[in-house]
TrEMBL record:
Span of the signal peptide: none
GO annotations of cellular component type: membrane
Active site, UniProt feature: 195, 350, 380
Membrane-crossing segments per the record: 6-23
Name under which the protein is recorded: Alpha/beta hydrolase fold-3 domain-containing protein
Family according to the record: Belongs to the 'GDXG' lipolytic enzyme family.
Keyword Transmembrane helix among UniProt keywords: yes
């Protein structure tokens, strides 16, 4: 290579590598260099996916799903755990049964995250699989005494709301009605989920607390891990004062709109970012008090930034009933007083932080027993940061341990 070429080439390579290897991150994150590496991997896979789209290999969603499938390791049976694939009322489920459980064991019904669009029950790094692996990572040295069911609910955009919600309700009702057939004590069942899965867990808990479901055994608890619980206000501090530049609010809206059956065009995203996805009637309705900064602890409140209005009245009209549907967004429920006790985990550096902080406050006001854990030094998705043989992500393990203690406290 000639000198001139080298002089031009090397800085370009360095700049490109710098972009991929370095993402600006807030101070004080635990295991920051690891997060840096995760984000580098994310950027590189996003680049490959967008190249694949340009080359005509499929849509971005298809390719991202294929990539995830490729990097997924399905859990297998071992001396401690039996993993069973089956279906409950037609919904694919992976059941993790510790070999030591008694014939009537408590259970967790788990819903995976992935923006209602990605991943599945057996995803490599999710909660279920990690509980399954945890003795290998030698932190929680006994297997949990409960059975975990993890469902592959239908995903958007092919199946918008209420498909995923309906599947999760159907699957949970199946566990409550037929648990004895696979060793579950139906009086000792809780729901849990992370991110979109936490949204589904809260929605299922809400649905099952309705009067018409009163003949089913009551859920013992809901475990809600950094979850999106509203699509009302995209100017909340956690959305507008978010230091994780790789995941701006537009990313969340790219999941929310397809979940609601809408296309996330740049224009539609801009409408949402300026909160004009709400009709004027909604903006004046009683729902304004369900999502409001006064529900946040004072240290989290911020003046909303000025964002230029982008209007699309057709979109706002189409979203009008969905935005306030509490089974899509549990913070829109008027009455939370029949819900089971909750463990709510929030992360400081997370778009959905304020959703869950408000949920904590609203549950407490409704008289629900809430255990709230706020993690100041982690980012959204840490449940996806799987512990593996050469790496342990501390926050993840700490949370598994918390959840185990919590679940055991609420089982009878
Ligand atoms: C099964 O559990 C025991 C005791 O916790 C542990 O020592 C062993 O490594 C586990 N086996 C596997 C395959 O994880
Ligand atoms: C469960 O299904 C997955 C595919 O969805 C497969 O990879 C895995 O081996 C199955 N596990 C068992 C124990 O049959
Ligand atoms: C407004 O949103 C709807 C629904 O997404 C879309 O079909 C329409 O093209 C948008 N209108 C304008 C003017 O962009």
């Amino acid at each position: 290579m000639g000198t001139l070429a080298r002089v031009l080439f090397i800085p370009v390579i360095c700049a490109v590598m710098g972009y991929y290897l370095y993402t600006p991150l807030p101070d004080g994150l635990r295991q920051k260099s690891r997060i840096q590496l995760f984000y580098a991997k994310h950027k590189i896979s996003s680049l490959l996916i967008s190249m694949g789209v340009k080359l005509g290999f499929g849509s971005g969603i298809e390719l991202a799903r294929r990539y995830q499938h490729y990097t997924m390791v399905s859990p297998l049976n071992d001396e401690n755990i039996t993993v069973t694939n089956t279906t409950f009322s037609g919904i694919p489920v992976m059941i993790f049964t510790p070999n030591t459980v008694s014939s009537k064991s408590p259970a967790i019904v788990y819903f995976h995250g992935g923006g209602w669009m990605f991943l599945s029950s057996g995803t490599k790094s999710h909660f279920t699989n990690n509980l399954y692996r945890k003795s290998q990572i030698n932190v929680l040295n006994t297997y949990s005494p409960y059975i975990i069911t993890s469902f592959s609910y239908r995903l958007s955009p092919e199946h918008p709301f209420p498909a995923a919600f309906d599947d999760c309700v159907t699957a949970t009702v199946h566990v409550l009605q037929n648990g004895h057939k696979f060793g579950v004590d139906s009086d000792n069942v809780g729901v849990a989920g992370d991110s979109a899965g936490g949204n589904l867990a809260a929605a299922v808990a809400l649905r099952l607390s309705d009067e018409k479901e009163s003949r089913l055994p009551k859920l013992r608890f809901q475990i809600i891990i950094y979850s999106v619980l509203q699509a009302w206000d995209f100017k909340l501090p956690s959305y507008t004062h978010n230091e994780i530049t790789l995941f701006p609010s537009s990313v969340m809206i790219k999941f929310i709109l397809p979940y609601l059956g809408e296309v996330a065009t740049d224009e539609n995203i801009a409408v949402c970012l300026s909160n004009n996805h709400l009709t004027p009637a909604l903006k004046k309705s009683k729902f304004t008090k369900f999502v409001d900064q006064s529900l946040l602890p004072p240290q989290f409140r911020r003046t909303p930034p000025k964002i230029d209005d982008v209007l699309n009245t057709t979109l706002a009209k189409r979203l009008e009933t969905l935005i306030i549907n509490p089974y899509a967004f549990p913070l829109m429920a008027k009455d939370l007083s029949r819900l089971p006790p909750a463990f709510v985990l929030t992360c400081q550096h997370d778009l959905t932080r304020d959703d869950a902080l408000m949920y904590v406050e609203r549950l407490r006001k409704a008289g629900i027993d809430v255990q709230h854990k706020h993690v100041t030094d982690a980012v959204h998705d840490f449940f996806l940061r799987a512990p593996n043989n050469d790496f342990t992500y501390d926050v993840h393990l700490e949370t598994l341990s918390d959840l185990k203690v919590y679940a055991n406290k609420y089982y009878k």
